[in-house]
C-alpha cells in the first residue's frame, strides 16, 4: 500500500536532515580549516545516522510482509493482495505495517491521501478480550465491523485486522430499533371533578379542548391516537417519537394543566408507557402497569416501563382527592373475606414505627379479632417512635404486640399478613415475613415507588389519603366487625393528626369525616394530644438542631453533627415540620447520623415535591412529606447528595413549567 502521509518518526528524520544541511553548508564558508573540517565531519555523521535510521525503519515495516511472503506461494501472495475484504497489519502504536489493495481503497480520502489508521478508523481499540474479537468502527463515515487477532513476530506484538463493510445492515438495524412500537395509555385524572355540575355544552368543550391539545402534541409523530373511554386514550407510536417526547419532558402535562376553569380547577394527565417489548400485547400490559404506577404516585406524571425498570417524569401537582367511597366499600368486603378465610392474622408496618403505623395496625387488629381470628401486631418495641401509644393500648388491656421472632413462630399455611403504612419491602419491620406468608395484603397511602412489594393478594393504595389510619377508619365502617372502642379510636385519630400536622396538611373531606367518626366513638382529643408531648430533653435537642439550620435555595437544612441521641428519631421530623413556619422556606430537611444509617426527614409547603427529592436518595413518601435513609456515607456526603437532589428536582420541575 502506498502512503501519501508520513509517520511521526519519518517527519522527525526529515527535520534532522534539514538541520544537517543547514549545518553542513556553512562549514564550507568558514575561514578556519580545522573548524570547517570538524563542522563538516559532525554534519556528515548526523546525515549518515539519519539515513541509517530511515533505512532500518523502512526495513522493519516491511518485515511482516516479507515474513508472510516467504511462507506463501506466488498464487497465495496474489490471492492475499486481492483478498476482497480490507486487511491490514498494525503494531501496538497503531502504525500501519501492511495492507492489501482493498484496505487502500477503503482508507483513501477524497483528495487521494491515505491517513494513519488512528485517524481514519473511529472507535478502534487494540485491547483484545482474547485471541480474537470484533468491534464496530467507522471509516470515512461508513460503518464497518472489524475482526482481528494478535500475534507476535520476532518479539513484537502485531495485530491483523479485517474490515467487513456492513454499513447498510447497521443502518437497517438502527432503523429497526427506532421504529419499534411503543404503547401509551393516557388518563385524565380528575375527569369527574372537571365535568361535575357542568352543562352538556361545557363538557363537550372540555373534552374537545383536551383532545385538541393531545392531537397537536402527537401530530408530528408517526403514531395513532384513539379515545376508547370517556377519559382514557390509547396511543401507539414508534421509538423515535418517544425519544423526542423524553427530550421535551412530556410538555403535554403542562399544556393540559394550564386549562384552568374559572373556579381554579385544572385537569391533569397520568400517562403509562410500555417500551422495548417484542409484541404490542406485551407493550400494552407494560403500559397498564406503568399507568397504575403513575396513578399510585398521585397522578399528573408519566411513567415508562421497560426491561430495565421504571422511569418517571412529572409529579408536579398534588394528588386529586376522590370523593367516592365505592372503592373503600369494595375493599372492605374483600378484607373481610380474606380474614374469615385465614387461620390467624399478623399486622406489620415499617421500621421505626410511628403513630400512623401503630394506629392503623391497632384498627386492623380490632377488625380481625372481632371477626373471630387471632391477630397480632409485629413491632420492635426497642426501636419505635410510638412507644407512648403502645403503652396506652397495653394499659387499656390491648396488648397484642409481638416481636418479629415471636411472629415467625405463629406463621401457618393459612396466615394472613396485613402490611400497613408502607409498601416497600426494604423498610418493613420484618421483610422476611413476606417470603414466609402465602397471603399478603397491603394498606398504604404513600406514593408508589418502583421497588414496591410484589405478588400481593390485595393492594389497597390511596396516595391521596391523609394517612393509613384514615384508610383503616373508612374500612372499619364497612366491615361487619362492630365499632372500635375508645382506646382504638384514639390510636387511629393520633395517626391522622400526626400525618396531617393537626389537620393542616394533606387533608380532605374524607379526612374530617373519618376524624368525626372516631370522635363519635369516644376518642378524646386531649388524650390524643398527650401522645405528642415532648420531654425537656427533646426540647433541648430540637433547639440545638434548629440552631444548626442553613438555607439552600429556599430549602432549610437542619443538620445534626454531634453524637447521636435517641430522641433525634422523634425530634428531627418535628424540627422539619416547624421549619416550614419560617418565612421564605418552601421545604425543610432534617438530617442526623444514626448508628446504622443517615436519616433524612423532608417536608414541603407544596412548591417543591420532596417525594421526588427523596426518591433520588433511595427514599420516598408524599408530595409534601417524605424521608430517606442513606447508608455507608458520612453526614457531609449526605448533605452534598441532598443538595444535588434538590438541584436536579428544581431543574426538572422548572423545565417542565417552562416547556
Structure description:
By secondary structure, the chain is α/β, with parallel strands linked by helices. Helices cover 44% and strands 21% of the residues. The protein is built from 24 helices and 24 strands. Strand 10, helix 11 and strand 11 (301-306) form a beta-alpha-beta unit. The radius of gyration is 37 Å and the shape is elongated. The chain starts with 7 loop residues before the first helix and ends with a helix. The model is unreliable at 1-5, 61-65 and 655-659 (pLDDT under 50).
Largest sheet: 6 strands, antiparallel
Strand residue percentage: 15-25%
Mean pLDDT: 83
Envelope shape: elongated
Short description:
The chain is α/β, with parallel strands linked by helices and 659 residues long.
Question: What topology emerges from the helices and strands here?
Answer:
Layout: H1 8-24, H2 33-69, H3 74-81, E1 87-91, E2 96-99, H4 101-107, H5 117-120, E3 121-122, E4 132-139, E5 142-153, E6 156-165, H6 167-178, E7 181-188, H7 191-195, H8 200-218, E8 224-229, E9 232-238, H9 239-247, H10 252-257, E10 269-274, H11 280-296, E11 301-306, E12 309-314, H12 326-341, E13 344-348, H13 355-370, E14 374-378, H14 387-395, E15 401-402, H15 404-409, E16 415-420, H16 432-436, E17 439-444, E18 458-461, H17 468-478, H18 486-500, H19 509-520, H20 525-530, H21 536-547, E19 549-552, E20 555-559, H22 568-579, E21 587-593, E22 598-604, H23 610-615, E23 620-621, E24 625-630, H24 635-657
Parallel strand pairs: 10-11, 13-14, 13-16, 14-15, 16-17, 17-18, 20-21
Antiparallel strand pairs: 1-2, 1-6, 3-4, 4-5, 5-6, 7-9, 7-10, 8-9, 11-12, 19-20, 21-22, 22-24, 23-24
Helix pairs in contact: 1-2, 12-17, 13-17, 13-18, 17-18, 18-19, 21-22
Amino acid at each position: 500500500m502506498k502512503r501519501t502521509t508520513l509517520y511521526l518518526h519519518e517527519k522527525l528524520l526529515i527535520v534532522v536532515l534539514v538541520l544537517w544541511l543547514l549545518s553542513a553548508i556553512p562549514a564550507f564558508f568558514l575561514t578556519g580549516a580545522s573548524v570547517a573540517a570538524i563542522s563538516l565531519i559532525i554534519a556528515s555523521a548526523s546525515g549518515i545516522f539519519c539515513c541509517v535510521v530511515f533505512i532500518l525503519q523502512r526495513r522493519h515495516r516491511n518485515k511482516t510482509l516479507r515474513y508472510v511472503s516467504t511462507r506463501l506461494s506466488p498464487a497465495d501472495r496474489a490471492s492475499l493482495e486481492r483478498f476482497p475484504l480490507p486487511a491490514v497489519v498494525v503494531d501496538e502504536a497503531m502504525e500501519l505495517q501492511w495492507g492489501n489493495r482493498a484496505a487502500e481503497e477503503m482508507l483513501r480520502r477524497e483528495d487521494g491521501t491515505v491517513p494513519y489508521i488512528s485517524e481514519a478508523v473511529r472507535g478502534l481499540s487494540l485491547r483484545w478480550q482474547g485471541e480474537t474479537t470484533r468491534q464496530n468502527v467507522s471509516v470515512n463515515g461508513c460503518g464497518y465491523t472489524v475482526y482481528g487477532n494478535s500475534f507476535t513476530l520476532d518479539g513484537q506484538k502485531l495485530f491483523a485486522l479485517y474490515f467487513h463493510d456492513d454499513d447498510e445492515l447497521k443502518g437497517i438495524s438502527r432503523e429497526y430499533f427506532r421504529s419499534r412500537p411503543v404503547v401509551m395509555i393516557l388518563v385524565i385524572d380528575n375527569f369527574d371533578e372537571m365535568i361535575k355540575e357542568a352543562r352538556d355544552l361545557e363538557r363537550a368543550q372540555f373534552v374537545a379542548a383536551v383532545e385538541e391539545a393531545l392531537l397537536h402534541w402527537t401530530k408530528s409523530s408517526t403514531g395513532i391516537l384513539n379515545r376508547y373511554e370517556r377519559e382514557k386514550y390509547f396511543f401507539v407510536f414508534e421509538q423515535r417519537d418517544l425519544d423526542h417526547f423524553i427530550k421535551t419532558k412530556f410538555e403535554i402535562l403542562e399544556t393540559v394543566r394550564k386549562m384552568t376553569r374559572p373556579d381554579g380547577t385544572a385537569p391533569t394527565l397520568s400517562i403509562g408507557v410500555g417500551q422495548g417489548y417484542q409484541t404490542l400485547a406485551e407493550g400494552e400490559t407494560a403500559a397498564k402497569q406503568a399507568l397504575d404506577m403513575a396513578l399510585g404516585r398521585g397522578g399528573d406524571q408519566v411513567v415508562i416501563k421497560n426491561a430495565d425498570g421504571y422511569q418517571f417524569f412529572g409529579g408536579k401537582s398534588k394528588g386529586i382527592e376522590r370523593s367516592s367511597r365505592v372503592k373503600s366499600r369494595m375493599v372492605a368486603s374483600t378484607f373481610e373475606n380474606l380474614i374469615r378465610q385465614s387461620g390467624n392474622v399478623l399486622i406489620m408496618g415499617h421500621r421505626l414505627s410511628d403513630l400512623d403505623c401503630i394506629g392503623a395496625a391497632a384498627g386492623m387488629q380490632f377488625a380481625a379479632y372481632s371477626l373471630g381470628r387471632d391477630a397480632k401486631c409485629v413491632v420492635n418495641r426497642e426501636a419505635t417512635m410510638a412507644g407512648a401509644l403502645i403503652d396506652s393500648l397495653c394499659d387499656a388491656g390491648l396488648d397484642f404486640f409481638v416481636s418479629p421472632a415471636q411472629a415467625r413462630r405463629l406463621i401457618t399455611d393459612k396466615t394472613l399478613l396485613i402490611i400497613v403504612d408502607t409498601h416497600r419491602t426494604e423498610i418493613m419491620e420484618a421483610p422476611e415475613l413476606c417470603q414466609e406468608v402465602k397471603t399478603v395484603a397491603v394498606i398504604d397511602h404513600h406514593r408508589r415507588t418502583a421497588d414496591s412489594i410484589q405478588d400481593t393478594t390485595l393492594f389497597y393504595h390511596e396516595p391521596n389519603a391523609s394517612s393509613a389510619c384514615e384508610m383503616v377508619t373508612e374500612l372499619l365502617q364497612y366491615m361487619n366487625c362492630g365499632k372500635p372502642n375508645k382506646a382504638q379510636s384514639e390510636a387511629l385519630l393520633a395517626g391522622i393528626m400526626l400525618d396531617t400536622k393537626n389537620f393542616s396538611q394533606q387533608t380532605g373531606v374524607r379526612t374530617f369525616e373519618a376524624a368525626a367518626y372516631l370522635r363519635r366513638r369516644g376518642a378524646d382529643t386531649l388524650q390524643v394530644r398527650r401522645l405528642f408531648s415532648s420531654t425537656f430533653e427533646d426540647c433541648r435537642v430540637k433547639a440545638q438542631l434548629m440552631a444548626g439550620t442553613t438555607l439552600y435555595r429556599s430549602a432549610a437544612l437542619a443538620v445534626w453533627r454531634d453524637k447521636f441521641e435517641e430522641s433525634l428519631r422523634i425530634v428531627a421530623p418535628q424540627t422539619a415540620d416547624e421549619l416550614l413556619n419560617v418565612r421564605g422556606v418552601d421545604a425543610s430537611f432534617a438530617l442526623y447520623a444514626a448508628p446504622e444509617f443517615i436519616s433524612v426527614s423532608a417536608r414541603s409547603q407544596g412548591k417543591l415535591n420532596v417525594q421526588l427529592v427523596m426518591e433520588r436518595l433511595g427514599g420516598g413518601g408524599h408530595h409534601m412529606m417524605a424521608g430517606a435513609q442513606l447508608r455507608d456515607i458520612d453526614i457531609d456526603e449526605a448533605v452534598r447528595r441532598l443538595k444535588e437532589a434538590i438541584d436536579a428536582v428544581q431543574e426538572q420541575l422548572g423545565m417542565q413549567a417552562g416547556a
